[in-house]
Amino acid sequence: MSASSTTPTNRSARQGALGAAEPARPAFPVAALAALSLSVFALCSAEFALIGLLLNVSDDLHVSVGTAGQLLSAYAIAVAIGGPIVTVMTSRVAPKALALALLLIFAAANVLGALAPSFGLLVAARTLGALTHSTFAAVCVLIAVRLSPPDRRASAIAWVAGGLGLATVLGGPIGTAIGEQWGWRATFWCVAGAAAMGFLALALLIPTHLDRGQGESPRAELGILRRGQVLCALAVTAVSQAGWFLLYSYISPLLRNVTGFGAGAATILLFVFGFGGFVGNALGGKLADRTLRGTLVGMLALLAATLSVLSFAAESRVVVPVAVFLIGLASGALVPPLQSWVLGAAGGGSALALAANTSAFNLGNALGSWSGSRLLDAGADVTTLAWIGALVVLVALLGVPAALARLERSSRTSSRTPSRGASPGDR
Questions:
Q1: Which of 215, 236, 270 delimits the end of a domain?
Q2: End-of-domain residue from the set 185, 215, 245
Q3: Cα distance between residue 252 and residue 96, in whole Å
Q4: Which residue blocks in 22-132 are alpha helix, DSSP H?
Q5: How far is residue 395's CA from residue 383's CA, in Å, rounded to a whole number?
Q6: Which of the 8 DSSP states describes residue 62?
Q7: Please, which residues have CB within 8 angstroms of residue 13's CB and are 6 or more apart in sequence?
Q8: In a domain, 9, yes or no
């Protein structure tokens, strides 16, 4: 044969071999991610909606407002402590089956809360629902990551975390409005209904092939939490969260007593904060797909700078709304990269590491709120909380560059030595 007759054939053969060697790029699973986000929205709305209904609960069940507040603290404690325990106990359950089971338990807990005849039973119902929180959030992130292209994992995490952002902006206020109009029990019924909708969405839109996966043994999962990179990521999560939450826990007194906004304007600014968090979450996912270290450093720096400015300009009705939006944006933008960091440090497939990070977020909230109350009781001005919070965030920022540089070096070493079993999540 002549060269001219063989060249097209050879070219076709080479193209066919190339096509076989390069599988089709997986599509970004928008429908599945939307189902996960809806389910997380239902879960987190239950946490936020009750904040505005404590007076209603105290009047109906004949307990003090302080006692009714135990519904919030019991939930936070159950999430922070019970979540990792539940995750270890369910480590061998397939992701989709686990997500569906947890959502059913959560819905049942809210039905129990809606029917609770006593405060004690209501606390038990809230605690039962809270025990599903960390594990459910973790398994949703894990499913999102497994379904998404490797270079868009942070964006997938942002979709899941977007459910939290929507719960902050819409779920909490809507749940409070429903409770004010038709009674606090109606809010529990609505949350149970939202959970049922999430269950159907997950059942229909999450691929069944994920059910064939095998989880790590409990001992192997616990061993992941001893890794230095995982512990470092968890520490940055808790410390950075405590820094901005130290002020945010008392943002209403600052807006009303220092800046001079009325009750209506202060409520609107809380919506502005939630909207900033929602925008930041989407932005943080896209940026973290490009540079994890740059996103964390940039958003922590923005958070610290904004808190610092707010401490000096808390009386300005121009500066404060902008600062509130930027604090929401920066804190929301930190969620996807922090989850990506801990997931990569854990090897790319640890639900326990993700649940522990959710607990770290809640621990940071509790630590920030408690520290703020101690400072205020000691005579500190509420504006003092802003610059102290900025210093705490700077502490978290200082540990990020060196820690992530070590993780990147480790990933490059693993990628050059495939026999060591480098995980895609590490890269």
A1: 215
A2: 215
A3: 40
A4: 30-49, 54-61, 65-68, 70-77, 83-89, 95-115, 119-131
A5: 19
A6: T
A7: none
A8: no
16 domain residue, yes or no: no
The stretch 305-334 carries a mean pLDDT of: 92
- Is 15 domain-assigned? no
- Residue range of the domain that includes 124: 28-215
Give the position of tokens 């968890």. Answer: 234
Tell me the one-letter amino acid at 421.
Answer: G
Question: Which residue do the tokens 């609770």 mark?
Answer: 116
| Residue 383: φ, ψ to 5° | -70, -25
Residues 100 and 239 in one domain: no
Same domain, 193 and 222: no
Question: At which residue do the structure tokens 């969620």 appear?
Answer: 335
Same domain flag for 241 and 389? yes
Which pLDDT band, with edges at 50, 70 and 90, does 83 fall under?
A: confident
108 Cβ partners below 8 Å, 6+ apart? 128, 192
Query: Would you say 109 and 153 are in contact if contact means Cβ atoms under 8 Å apart?
Result: no
Residue located via tokens 């109350």: 373
Q: Phi and psi at residue 109, in whole multiples of 5°?
A: -65, -35
Number of residues assigned to the chain:
427
Residue 411: per-residue pLDDT: 59
Q: Which tokens go with 60? A: 């109906």
- The helix/strand/coil state of 419 is helix
**Same domain membership, residue 334 and residue 201:** no
Q: What is the CATH number of the domain that holds 277?
A: 1.20.1250.20
What average pLDDT does the segment 339-351 reach?
78
Say yes or no: 210 and 246 in one domain.
no
- Are 79 and 118 in the same domain? yes
Average pLDDT over residues 245-255: 81
What average pLDDT does the segment 15-25 reach? 45
Q: How many domains does the chain have?
A: 2
213/209 Cα distance (integer angstroms): 8
Closest to 307 in 3D by CA, of 369, 387, 375, 383: 387
Instruction: Say if residue 184 is in the same domain as residue 284.
Output: no
**Domain co-membership, 223 together with 122:** no
Q: What angle do CA 152, 229, 144 make, to 5 degrees?
A: 25
77: how many CB neighbours lie within 10 A of its CB? 16
Query: How high is the pLDDT of residue 66?
Result: 66
4 is a domain residue? no
Q: What is the pLDDT of residue 419?
A: 41
pTM of the model: 0.72
Highest mean pLDDT among 170-179, 210-219, 386-395: 386-395
